[in-house]
Amino acid sequence: MASSSQASRAVPNLAFRRLRGQRSPGEFAAAVRKAAREIGEQVSCDARYIGRVEAGEIRCPNYAYERVFLHMFSGLALGDLGFTPRAQVRGGSRCRPEQALDTRAFGFAATTCTDTDSDEESDVLRRAFMTSGTATAAAASLGLSSMAVPSQGRRRVGEPEVKAVEEAVRRIRLLDDRHGADGLYRRAAQPLRAAYALLDAGIAARRSTTDRLHSGAGELAISVGWLAHDSGRFDDARSHYAEALATARVAGDAALEAHAFCNTSFLARDTGRPREAVRSAQAGLRAAGHLASPRLLALLALREAGGWAGLGDRAGCEQALARAHTYFDRGAGAADPEWMSFFGEPELESLQAQCWATLGDWPRAIRHARRAATLQDRRFTRNLALYHAELATDLAHGGAPDESASAAEEALDLLDGVQSARIQALLSSTARTLRGHRGARGVGAFLRRYEEVRV
């Protein structure tokens, strides 16, 4: 939403209003969504968004909307649509030299900035990844184009190949943080195949290189498995997690094993196998026992708590949550795995909320879900949308339909460019629950907006 200072400077976009013509804002929003589908984009455009554009609150659209608008009005530039140049809106680049990231290894020669006020880098990465039309281009977008392994013969694996695998994992995580899993999963499978082809066909000069390649390939399998998991492809996710676990066992990599069990537990909980969720989390705790990472132990204890909640065992759940807090309170450490960067206080609160929601304790679920949504850094769009969607669901079940509708609207505001089956399922559940409360403040408006966006 625009801030009050932005609103006070807003100049109505009359050019855009003229382009809408005789169509209502809702009809025009439907046309925008239709145009987006024609070019493979997904935008949550509704009458409210069109109103904000015409009021001048949105001075320059994000890249997804830019592509849609330029597709709708072929031959016109953003300026012709009444928008301000992006560089002028952002106030220019404010990155320092040490913040620059050389992206040539990812198939495009450009240097971008990690300015916290800009999503330029993530969008460049997203476009390279999302528009790749072939398997080769998909691999190139993640820096793995050089890793094509011939069907015959063997090749030596060295530092460049191992670094490419490790960097691919980081890039997938970055894209997932920003955009969710639905649009990423298919294209991420090719780099995974390339990484495992290296394991099968490559030889390394050093044992340490082989170990890093095993670890990188396993982490890549988990990352791709998570994309499948979050986009509702549960059988694929299970297969990828099992592949990572096998890789960990072959390499004797306890950290990778703990990670694979952590995700396997999460998947088991999501697919109605709570006892497996408990056992997988406990196996992960055993694997992580000597890794000197209290935060990893905390997350695994939370996975175990989720399993106990699914079994309806409140005492088991509370005991696991208590252990999770004990571990978490020891703080972050140097031994914490890189993939755990997402696990801070907001995620701790969210996972507790999920436990209490499963047990039907809505007041506790609401309290923790509200804290998760409040504490989350707004740069991590996918998780912020998820936490608001979880809060909306808990409030709906907890007898606060007006607050639920408000939280659900917040989630919808964040969904442009984010594609997550998990979030969509939560909003669908909230909408079903709220249909019986249309008289509550804000509920009718949310339901109308939700149905518009769904079309």
List keywords for this structure.
455 residues, mainly alpha, 22 helices
How would you portray this structure in words?
This is Tetratricopeptide repeat protein. The structure is a single chain. The protein has 455 residues and is mainly alpha-helical. Among the domains are: 1-92; 96-223, no CATH class. Helix content is 65%, strand content 2%. The chain has helices at 4-9, 14-20, 25-38, 47-54, 63-72, 86-90, 120-130, 135-141, 159-179, 185-201, 207-230, 234-251, 254-270, 274-288, 294-310, 314-328, 345-358, 362-375, 381-397, 401-413, 421-434, 443-454; strands spanning 101-102, 111-112, 155-157, 202-204. The strands form 2 sheets. Strands 1-2 form a two-stranded antiparallel ribbon. A hairpin with an 8-residue loop joins β1 (101-102) and β2. α12 (234-251) packs antiparallel against α13 (254-270), α14 (274-288) runs antiparallel to α15 and α19 (381-397) packs parallel to α21. Mean pLDDT is 80; it is low at 1-8 and 90-153.
